[in-house]
Amino acid sequence: MSVWNGSDICSDILAIMEKLYHIQDLHALLDAVLLQARQFAHADAGSIYLIENEVLNFSYTHNDTLFSSSGSNKYLYTSSTLPIDSRSVAGYAALTGQPLVIDDVYRIPPEMPFSFNRSFDRASGYRTKSILAVPLITSTNKIVGVMEIINPLNHANELSTFSDRDQVVLSYFAQNAAAAIERAMMTREIILRMIKMCELRDPLETGVHANRVGAYAAEIYHQWSLTHGIGGDEIKRTKDLLRIAAMLHDLGKIAIPDLILKKPGGLDTEEFNLMKYHTIHGARLFRNKAPDLDVLSAEIALNHHERWDGLGYPGKIDDIFQDRVQLGKGKQGEETPLAGRIVAVADVYDALVSKRVYKEALSEDVTLDYIKAQSGKHFDPQVVDAFLGIYDVIVAIGKKYREEVAPLVLATT
């Protein structure tokens, strides 16, 4: 029988946290936190709820039994919320600030205030048995969410129950992870505020649009990388940066005049040429080339309107920081960086399926026909293949990040 050494566990957790603090994207961080927590308890599944707008928002999930068989990430973008009260397992943990261990969620005594929602099990065919719900509490005693670890397995990979050691280790890990999660949530909020500033100028640039494009881009890259021999660590690192950078793709529109941004009809040739410069303005915002995120953000801002056939913009420019920048000849094929080619597909898809004040949303069938028809013209064929290969994930992302159409604010004289 092995002896549990508490000091070794503490050292392990601190070493893990050192790595987690380098993850910038909230989505990527939740993935890493949940994976590590499951490894501590050798658990089959788990979920993380974050507190947003005073409710628990279903934010991330793992399930080896279901996801490894389906090969799809669509469950990652399930959208649901829970009130912070005693009626649910996660709500009870958030309300009380105490971990909750349940050996069999189908046998919760009726006198307990909380119950288990069996809807996911019924829909998926999965059997949830044991749950350890741990509140994510920062050093300032702020609860930022709840982590649920589900169905621990014994050495024979059979369903088991959580031990006292599991509860202690996961509670300690959750306390440390909470600070990293809070930091990532603040980073995400800062990014969304930047986009909100742009939205005040451009009614089409919204936080949910940015979230969708960021998520589309990350998942398209993931699928693309699987067919190009990219290693797992490199995939995770790039996805971490790409999701954030793609969210900022249109930030340069803040430098475009209101008469163009808020024009309800189509733009004339002169106006459209001025609009093209938002790519250059956006790239200039990330002049610091030291952080990888700045490099990728500038790359996407500059290149997401380039086309595979070379008919895009702003084209080849020697120095985007010169006083008078002239648009160049469009980049062709792989002259456009991969991130730009990916965001080109993500951005156009989202624009087509989204309702705007000046147009109705196109149907999914019509949009897919357009994307396919533009493979090898507007879009990189391999990126289109990756997009089509995860279309169920794309649809799930669209459902998670829905938006209401705000009325168009016309420029005043």
Task: Give structural attributes.
413 residues, alpha+beta, Beta-Lactamase, Hypothetical protein af1432, six-stranded antiparallel beta sheet, 6 strands
Molecular structure report:
The protein is of the alpha+beta class and 413 residues long. It folds into 2 domains: 179 residues, 2-Layer Sandwich (Beta-Lactamase); 199 residues, Hypothetical protein af1432, CATH 1.10.3210. Helix content is 49%, strand content 10%. The chain starts with 5 loop residues before the first helix and ends in a 13-residue tail after the last helix.
Q: What number of domains?
A: 2
Q: What portion of residues is helical?
A: 40-55%
Judged by helices, strands and strand pairing, the structural class is alpha+beta
What's the CATH topology label of the largest domain?
Hypothetical protein af1432
Overall, the morphology is elongated
Strand tally is 6
Tell me the series of helices and strands, N- to C-terminal: HHEEHEHEHEEHHHHHHHHHHH
Summarize the structure.
The chain has 413 residues and is of the alpha+beta class. The chain is built from 16 helices and six strands.
Record the SSE blueprint.
Elements: H1 6-20, H2 26-41, E1 43-52, E2 55-63, H3 64-70, E3 81-82, H4 89-96, E4 100-102, H5 119-124, E5 131-137, E6 143-152, H6 164-201, H7 207-226, H8 232-247, H9 258-261, H10 269-275, H11 278-284, H12 292-303, H13 338-353, H14 364-373, H15 381-389, H16 391-400
Antiparallel strand pairs: 1-2, 1-6, 2-3, 4-5, 5-6
Helix pairs in contact: 1-6, 2-6, 7-8, 7-13, 7-15, 7-16, 8-12, 11-12, 12-13, 13-14
